Amino acid sequence: MVGHEMGVRKKKNTIRDVAKLAGVSYQTVSRVMNESESVAEETRKRVLQAMRELDFVPSKVAQMLNTHQSHTLELIVVNIRQGGASRNRSKAWPWPRAMLATICWSQ
């Protein structure tokens, strides 16, 4: 048995791993992820390629901790005729630019 089968978790790649593979600083990787225009096109391509090779997925939790922004929009709709929000349903939809929208309604 190997790795995952034995209960050993595979280390998740970080922004620093991407930077090392691309031969740039982690700040440059951050600029690429934030679509900054201050990154040369060739460098941007190297960083994006490194991200693909490592199957790098930015951590939403890390981004929220760093920016103090959750990019979450929540809307709660209550039907007071049906006893308030006692039986809520919730649905989340993808939102542009890594935002999350959560809409709750009661029946």
Automatic annotation (TrEMBL):
Q: Which UniProt keywords apply?
A: DNA-binding, Transcription, Transcription regulation
What Gene Ontology molecular-function terms does this entry list? DNA-binding transcription factor activity; transcription cis-regulatory region binding
DNA-binding: is it a keyword of this entry?
yes
Q: Which SMART domains does the record associate with it?
A: HTH_LACI
Domain HTH lacI-type: where?
Answer: 14-67
Asked if the keyword NAD belongs to this entry, the reply reads: no
Among InterPro entries, the record links this protein to:
HTH_LacI, Lambda_DNA-bd_dom_sf
Q: Which domain of life is it from?
A: Bacteria
Q: Under what name is this protein listed? A: HTH lacI-type domain-containing protein
Q: What species is given as this protein's source?
A: Dictyobacter kobayashii
